[in-house]
Amino acid sequence: HFNSSGGTGTMESVYVPREAPKNVYTVPACTFTHTVPFKNWTTQPNGGGTDVAVDAVMTLTSDTTLYAKWSCVAMIGNTPYATLPEAITAATSGATITIVDNITPDAVANITLDKSLTITAETPGKYTIADHHFTLSGNTVEVTVSNLNFSGDSYINANNGKGLTVDHVNA
What we know:
This protein is mostly beta strands and 171 residues long. The protein has one helix at 84-90; strands spanning 2-3, 24-26, 38-42, 51-52, 57-59, 66-70, 74-76, 79-81, 95-99, 109-113, 117-121, 128-130, 132-136, 143-146, 149-151, 155-157, 164-167. It has a six-stranded mixed beta sheet. It has a four-stranded mixed beta sheet with strand order 1-6-3-4, with no helix packed on it. Strands 10-13-16 form a three-stranded parallel beta sheet, with no helix packed on it. Strand 3 (38-42) and strand 4 (51-52) form a beta hairpin. The relative contact order is 0.13.
């Protein structure tokens, strides 16, 4: 079985016998589409489980579903975003942006936070944001940053600390 993980389109389920030697299966390319590029398949929903590459050979012994894993660095709910600036732009005030991969832009990203947000890691301490300059705009914006590592030329300018809560950020 194939699950689009929020993508669109269909992929037909494939019957693979469970007895050797006929239970060997070559994983196909993804034909689902999404607003972000396909990264690989995974064995659990929401990007969890074991990553499985296209053309990988699997030995199947039970009913198996492969879930599309999209190339994104941030999620708002179930919506993936390819870049952190895209997620911040799309977020409504009070939203939580969950970081799901390391973020390393081609050049330093300058981001103005003009709405109240929470930015946190899917797995505490697992992901790094490199080369991002964050500036809080105005005295009513409240931003919480938690469970992330900052590296390279990353910093947060919080107007003398007003409106910023930082919890477990490793610099």
